[in-house]
């Protein structure tokens, strides 16, 4: 059982999400790993207003989930996500007023913030098309597995918009560097799988046939680790981007001291003394 949630929190904040019933995508949960599958394969798995909102709310709920320790984000069949649906999102957007448009862009940005705020590592399994908002979802994940045939495109300038969408101008340079991020955001050109691995956008390439299994294996590896400490690691990776080195060193000192109070830390020590592999329980 994951114990990342403070027992002092009101009971209403604690959530068991393994039995969650998704409306606008597929959801599966098994042994601490949740799998979100964008499931509109006939359109290359585009997002809609409703799927954006449900994803945002789900990732917010994951912050308080006690039975989910890692998340796999994937697309159905041979593609990850083609971005916002042209007919169901882009078309209606041209009819909205400025305040209504700002409500939409804030909502999409809130999805990225929710993905970063949940303590579970998010593994993106990227195959085929990964474009627009789909590329943002991949970027906002913590780890990315790709295939050689995957094509990641930040297409915003192709539709007359700025590349600064959903945090791209802040997050993408941290992944691949300022110059490379600038090229992708200014041109909208696709980044193939081999280029994505070479530039550090994906952690590694696997075959399309092995992608789902490899993403699950990576997630289960994370679940088998010290999940409370993994949540601390994720939080510090995000928080320290805005810190000086001095602030980061002090913040990590405090975070590590907290982790040293966990039972998992004690389990690791006793296992080392006994020359055994530690079995972590997330507390």
Word description of this protein:
The chain is built from 11 helices and 9 strands. Helix 1 (49-62) packs parallel to helix 3. 45% of the residues lie in helices and 13% in strands. The chain has 283 residues and is α/β, with parallel strands linked by helices. It is globular, with a radius of gyration of 19 Å.
Set out the fold topology.
Layout: E1 26-30, E2 33-38, H1 49-62, E3 70-75, H2 86-93, H3 98-117, E4 122-126, E5 129-131, H4 133-140, E6 143-146, E7 151-153, H5 168-176, H6 178-187, E8 191-192, H7 193-199, E9 204-205, H8 211-223, H9 227-239, H10 245-259, H11 263-273
Helix pairs in contact: 1-3, 5-6, 9-10
Oligomer: single chain
CATH class category label of the largest domain: Alpha Beta
Q: Could you give me the name of the CATH homologous superfamily of the largest domain?
A: 2-enoyl-CoA Hydratase, Chain A, domain 1
- Counting DSSP H or I runs of 4 or more residues, the number of helices is 11
- Mean pLDDT score: 92
Outline of the structure:
Helix content is 45%, strand content 13%.
Record keyword descriptors for this entry.
283 residues, alpha/beta, 3-stranded mixed sheet, 11 helices, 9 strands
């Amino acid at each position: 059982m994951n114990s990342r949630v403070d027992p002092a929190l009101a009971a209403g904040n604690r959530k068991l999400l393994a039995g969650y019933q998704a409306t606008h995508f597929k959801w599966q949960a098994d042994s601490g790993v949740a799998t979100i599958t964008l499931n509109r394969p006939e359109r290359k798995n585009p997002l809609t207003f409703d799927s954006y909102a449900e994803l945002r709310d789900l990732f917010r709920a994951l912050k308080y989930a006690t039975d989910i320790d890692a998340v796999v984000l994937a697309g159905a069949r041979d593609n990850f996500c083609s971005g916002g649906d042209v007919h169901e999102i882009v078309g209606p957007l041209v009819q909205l007023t400025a305040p209504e448009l700002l409500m939409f862009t804030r909502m999409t940005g809130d999805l990225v913030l929710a993905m970063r705020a949940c303590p579970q590592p998010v593994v993106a399994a990227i195959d085929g098309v990964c474009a627009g908002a789909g590329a943002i979802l991949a970027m906002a994940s913590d780890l990315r597995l790709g295939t050689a045939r995957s094509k990641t495109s930040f297409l915003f300038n192709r539709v007359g918009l700025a590349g600064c969408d959903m945090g791209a101008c802040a997050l993408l340079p941290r992944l691949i560097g300022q110059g490379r991020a600038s090229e992708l955001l200014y041109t909208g050109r696709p980044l193939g799988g081999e280029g994505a691995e070479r530039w550090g956008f994906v952690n590694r390439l696997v075959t399309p046939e092995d992608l789902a299994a490899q993403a699950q294996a990576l997630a289960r590896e994370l679940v088998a680790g010290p999940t409370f400490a993994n949540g601390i690691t994720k939080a510090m990776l995000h928080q320290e981007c805005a810190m000086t080195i001095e602030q980061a060193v002090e913040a990590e000192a405090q975070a590590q001291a907290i982790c040293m109070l966990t039972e998992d830390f004690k389990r690791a020590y006793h296992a080392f003394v006994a020359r055994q592999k530690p079995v972590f329980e997330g507390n």
